[in-house]
Amino acid sequence: MCIIWETQKETDLIDLIGKIVEVKANDITYTGKLVEVGETEVHLESELGWIVIPAENIAFIREKED
Known about the structure:
With 66 residues, the chain is mainly β. The chain is built from one helix and six strands; from the N terminus they run E-H-E-E-E-E-E.
């Protein structure tokens, strides 16, 4: 699995939990609050409900700019 975390350090990913992020997977960009990052899935809470994205499909995760 190869994920490009668009952060300075790996520990920065933990700092993104609870923040609004953009996740690109399968040429789709998802936006929502980062709730959980696991070895196999990433969980976002969006305006329309929960989004569960398989980690193997993720190109990047980054904090959403205002």
